[in-house]
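Narrative summary of target 7.
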Amino acid sequence: MPGPLLDTLRGKVTERRPVWLMRQAGRYLPEYRALRAEKGGFLKLVYDSEAAAEITLQPIRRFGFDGAILFSDILIVPHALGQDLQFLAGEGPHLSPRLVDVALETLEAAPQHFDPIYETVRLCRQQLPANVTMLGFAGSPWTVATYMVTGEGSKDHHVARAMAYRDPAAFGAIIDAIVESSITYLSGQIDAGAEAVQLFDSWAGSLSPLQFERWVVEPTTRIVDAVRKLHPDTPIIGFPKGAGGKLPSYVRETGVNAVGVDETVDPRWIHRELPGDLPVQGNLDPLLLISGGDELDKAARELLAAFEGRPHVFNLGHGIDKTTPIANVERLLQVVRG
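Modeled conformation, tokenized:
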């Protein structure tokens, strides 16, 4: 039997609001920190299928969330496309060579990097309760491309944005490669047991409307169309962080089954502007989960009320922070679950 999360993503208004949190498997949990200390660096954990499955399951055991989000990273796709990937302590991810310096054609594809991720999904689905939805994911092409071009994260993505203006053909070729690889990757996750998938576009908010249409909406639409042809019953969640007023056109044009919204968007506006039967996911401010207290309770209740009568997945507006107290997560769940 499908659980409340999968039912909601398929458009049903459930009696109890399903809840999961982005980055729910991670550094705020002592059991995660202990396993990471034992196993080594982040990338080693991602490619160790048994360890990655254990991390994916940790928040399910502790909190009983309605969805288990695969423990992995959006930069697995660039790694599979042939860039070297490292996570350096205190510096974050580094990709080389940077595609602002070399042509995409110089990379040698390494699709074998997908295999341990698929195995993680298989192991998780075997161990999860039947009513907990297994969620796979990939980064959306624009966000992944910003890392591939620059070689690391940046505040305003000016190198990638400038390349997209200066050489749209070369930048478009990078986007095309990410699209094709992401279709393969998401389809493989679904074949392995993922029951829904999410496209994370963390940097969608950095683009002008025309560039948003070209580098967010158009490639996302291609992924959605291709994955849906292969897996017509698998819900696809789009999460274009920072899209704001462009959300209605994003939903309309991409055809995603559900949309995630960040904490900067008024839920009442979302409820008014998006189709009433469209599942919406979000959008509690992650900082409220850190601060806790009565303000957390109040905000959670207001969010539940704002989306009353609509298929709604309770979630954060972005990932849970590593400093989040576990007691605050427990408190939030008490409010959401009544």
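The radius of gyration is 19 Å.
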